[in-house]
Design a protein that fits this description.
With 470 residues, the chain is an alpha/beta fold. The protein contains 19 helices and 14 strands. The protein has helices at residues 9-13, 56-63, 66-69, 82-91, 103-108, 114-123, 126-137, 164-168, 180-192, 208-219, 235-244, 256-262, 288-293, 295-312, 318-325, 386-398, 411-418, 422-430, 459-463, and strands spanning 44-50, 73-79, 96-100, 147-152, 155-156, 158-162, 199-202, 229-232, 247-253, 267-271, 282-287, 346-348, 358-360, 365-366.
Length: 470
């Protein structure tokens, strides 16, 4: 892109991190008594998860007794897709879920969620209000409740992978190029010379993998709307698409990608940590009505998950993580165990030759804290930055998602509603965990692959800087 200036890509690959595992601020609480948040309104919980590496804190909280420590009897319910997990949440079958960071915004701006809810509340008759209140009490609130974020589960953690067709066309993993200009020229030329836009798979339009992939393509002058055909596919359909040539690649989280690489069906073109260092990923979420009805239970659940997140980042615990996550009731790990190397800080980019492509990437995924260039105390992975939601909203407008063509004037109020901070602040205090001051932070230029800073106080200026958009 003409507007964007690039430096040598090799400098971006170095995150400037010290792999200090869990040198966590505050207490890790493993040997501490549980914090008391008051009488629990509910103790039997069902929490939805999707088969991915970032459900690990929830699995650990279940398997290692963190939930029980805080007085909760939790059943983890595996769901096949992000769409289905949200359906189950809104139907009342689940109390909380592992979901996408952008999901609260995505649903709010859909025709079935936030805006419609506000409109119907203003137009209701008394009879309709009573009916909806009854629905709320039973948690059957699909049209009347918003998904709200409780805390972050991790940062980073996705990859962009391409098929053998791209490999034969001369494309290689990003870390194999000497400069970003070299990578940019090669990828741009390849996609420009294709006879028709190839299919490209994502797990959900609100996934960070979708946003970071589009951002990555845009920095290379590749138009995500015209040069590729994005479509939502489940893992089985992705594999079928790769075999048939219907799709040229996909953007997703692990564990799936390492299995596909082992089966020689794809190679990793880039990991999203190299596109935006320290971006938000998955969250623990619930409905706003549920949070209002069970505030103490919500805090106990968050405390258990926070303790598990700290456990996951401690390298002394790595050998204990893979066996529990690999259980079939939690993930579809497959026969290949290459994903386990990620927990030790090693990432396999794959390829269709015999050359080893395992690279040290200690911060491929962070569940609580590592001392890195972009994550320094008191910041930590579980803190929900409202500025991250501002960035997501700029991308939703950029690509006209949910019919958004202008940045919402009431965005601050919407984000504050969907990403509340009060409950997590109480949990962090109980953990002697310092909190960043404020909810907005500047993302300096060296956090992004194109060296363009993000100022959350100037979303329109940032948005207008993109040449490629819907």
């Amino acid at each position: 892109m003409k507007r964007r200036q690039f430096l040598q890509y090799s400098t971006l690959a170095a995150a400037g991190l010290t792999f200090a595992a869990c040198t966590s601020q505050g207490s890790t609480h493993f040997t501490q008594p549980p914090a008391n948040f008051g009488k629990l309104e509910k103790t039997d919980l069902k929490i939805g998860i999707v088969s991915s590496l970032d459900c690990l804190p929830l699995v650990v909280a279940k398997e290692k007794g963190m939930f029980k420590k805080y007085g909760l009897d939790v059943t983890l319910v595996k769901q096949p897709t992000w769409e289905q997990i949200q359906t189950e949440l809104h139907s009342g079958n689940l109390d909380a879920v592992q979901t996408l960071f952008a999901m609260p915004l995505w649903e709010y701006f859909s025709s079935k969620s936030g805006k419609l809810r506000e409109q119907t509340q203003e137009e209701d008759s008394d009879k309709e209000k009573k009916s909806r209140n009854k629905e709320k009490e039973s948690n059957k609130t699909k049209g009347n409740a918003n998904t709200v974020a409780l805390m972050g589960l991790n940062i980073n953690g996705n990859s962009i992978s391409l098929s053998e067709v791209a490999w034969k066309g001369g494309l290689r993993p990003s870390q194999a190029y000497n400069t970003y200009n070299e990578l940019q020229d090669g990828y741009n030329k390849f996609f420009r010379e294709l006879k028709k836009p190839p299919g490209f798979a994502i797990s959900h339009p609100a996934s960070m993998a979708n946003y970071t992939t589009r951002y990555w393509l845009g920095t290379m002058g590749i138009d995500a709307e015209r040069d590729l055909k994005f479509e939502v596919l489940d893992p089985d359909a992705i594999l079928t698409g790769l075999d048939s040539g219907k799709i040229i690649g996909y953007a997703t989280d692990e564990l799936f990608n390492q299995q596909t690489i082992a089966d020689k069906k794809a190679f990793t073109a880039s990991i999203d940590r190299d596109i935006w260092q320290g971006h938000p990923e998955k969250i623990l979420a619930t409905l706003d009505t549920w949070l209002k009805d069970y505030p103490n239970t919500a805090k106990a659940m968050m405390a258990a998950v926070l303790e598990a997140c700290q456990y996951c980042d401690n390298q002394d615990n790595v050998t204990a993580l893979a066996p529990v996550l690999g259980k079939s009731e939690y993930t579809d790990a497959g026969n290949n165990k290459g994903w386990q190397k990620i927990l030790t800080g090693n990432y396999n980019y794959g390829g269709f030759d015999s050359k080893p492509e395992v690279v040290k990437v200690a911060d491929f995924q962070i569940f609580h804290f590592q001392q890195t260039k972009y994550l320094q105390q008191p910041n930590h992975a579980n803190f929900l930055w409202h500025s991250h939601a501002v960035w997501v909203l700029t991308q939703m407008v950029r690509w006209h998602q949910q019919k958004l063509t202008d940045y919402p004037k009431n965005s601050d109020a919407i984000i504050k509603q969907l990403y509340p901070t009060e409950a997590y602040a109480d949990v962090a205090k109980a953990f002697w965990l310092n909190m960043p001051k404020g909810q907005l932070k500047m993302e300096p230029p060296d956090m992004f692959i194109d060296r363009v800073a993000f100022d959350p106080n100037k979303p329109m200026e940032y948005l207008n800087g993109f040449e490629l958009r819907a």
